[in-house]
């Protein structure tokens, strides 16, 4: 240990080093591959990695990209050398296996690979699947979304004195970078090239918090990637569990099984956690009752992993908020698993400390509505554990948990009966309509007379919690060409928070009508598929202090709600608002107000120019919450007749306005799949002023950051 380290961190390093070394691997060319024809597993070292779950290795994308500039990273095979069966105090044999790169983050690294010696884009992570069953150790990953700045150790493959080995060195976490995606490592020791991709361990809490990414070009220290960036893995199609949730479930069950097993005398991560010096002992006024013991925490994670994964990130965040007593930090990556919810409960403000908050959370999870039936008895087993664990805590908490469990069971039974009744009398929402849950809100404002924009991404809680808005990210002075890249990560984070296993969340784009031509539906966030193909996208007029009827003859709120309800129920009628037989025209306010309530105004010309720009304002003033506009084709001489004809047929077939956002998504998917019969819908967009989804009415951003 370098000079200046505390005795506590020296002891922690001594306890943790064997466990981390046993789970760390050397990454190189695959055995017998083109770069290693000798099939001996001793080709040049590309970097390091470490097992995070049975059969899964986490490393850096630039490590698996070594020597492969002309090939795709995902699907590439690599070699992994590790100590099979090694653990604390036990010798192991060296084993080499083949792994396949399953995912790289960010996905754009497949198209935009940095040059040699250039820094790869954050988060610079890769997940490698082991292609044969092997016995190996796994690290313990932190459940915190943000690292604590404590003493740490980093591990990886070195070749000092010509000997390849996994070694560890100590440092201190000095802060974060890249909006929390990266961790700055101190300059206490030099990070060697082969250590890239190795684990960074918090010595205070005994958990892996980062992945070694880069060293400074001069001097010591460097950067690591926060392991919470694994949560940015692309979300799966509907009904699938998702790679992140599957891996974290396997991680927790691995440590749970090791903790319960009496067939192996080797020290486990839980054993070591129990031996680490307690950094918060002085602050715990309840004699150890304020936090769960390491064994209790491992057991709780294992029992949560036995349950089906949560239906959405917002479901996890809501239960954590109820257990914590205040809203968790919304600037952290979205919690995607039940385990992630535990990470939101550290240092709570309410009575009882972490133990009470985690037991409240576990109680609520045991009576939650799961996306699929849990294994027989799994939810009851979780509650039984909560009840037994609470026996060592104070009596008021035991009584509170019992009442919480009874109320939760009763509420779940009421929901089940309501759903059973809906199967006979009709579903809660009509088939094909939008989900009633949270949606992602994108707001964009023009920045004065300059061709730059300010923006904000938020989460709207939905009709169940009207008026609740959770910020995700903001930005200022972004060029039109730079908007897709600037919004890629914030929008992806918003979707992770809102998507459920049943349906992708709605994207609401609130902009002034002159920006209704913004091609948000064509932006690509992940998988090479436009966002408008992946989910419903609608336009909204921005809210503001002067939002509502004015002196220009705008209808009142009652009339607007009447029109909205009538169009939602159907049938709907289309009406051209800015053209007549292909020629532009400006509708009058009197003509628009006189149309029947189930009319959908249709605008076919450029939204940012007259007469369509003025017509969009008039349509809103006349109380039409649903309208259709589009970005015209590049050929100014192209007829708008196919657009109007196709839209009329679509409205007749839809029958009601409630299904139009999803039907337009389907049309975009057909056009993306090269269906000529859907080409007429290119650029079409819905103006969707749902009164149940109120927009925030605060002022836009101003100035530079």
Spatial extent as radius of gyration = 28 Å
Mean pLDDT: 86
Low-confidence stretches: 85-92, 423-430, 545-552
The order of strands across the largest sheet is 1-2-3-6-5-4
- Give the % helix: 25-40%
Tell me the structural class: alpha+beta
* Total DSSP helices: 17
| Gap between N and C termini | 41 Å
Number of strands: 25
Beta-strand residue percentage: 15-25%
Query: What is the 3D shape?
Result: globular
The major beta sheet can be summarized as: 6 strands, antiparallel, barrel
Could you explain how this protein is built, in words?
Strand 8 and strand 9 form a beta hairpin. The strands form seven sheets. Strands 1-2-3-6-5-4 form a six-stranded antiparallel β-barrel. Helix 3 (243-260) crosses helix 5 and helix 8 (353-366) packs antiparallel against helix 9. The chain has 705 residues and is of the alpha+beta class. It is built from 17 helices and 25 strands. The radius of gyration is 28 Å and the shape is globular.
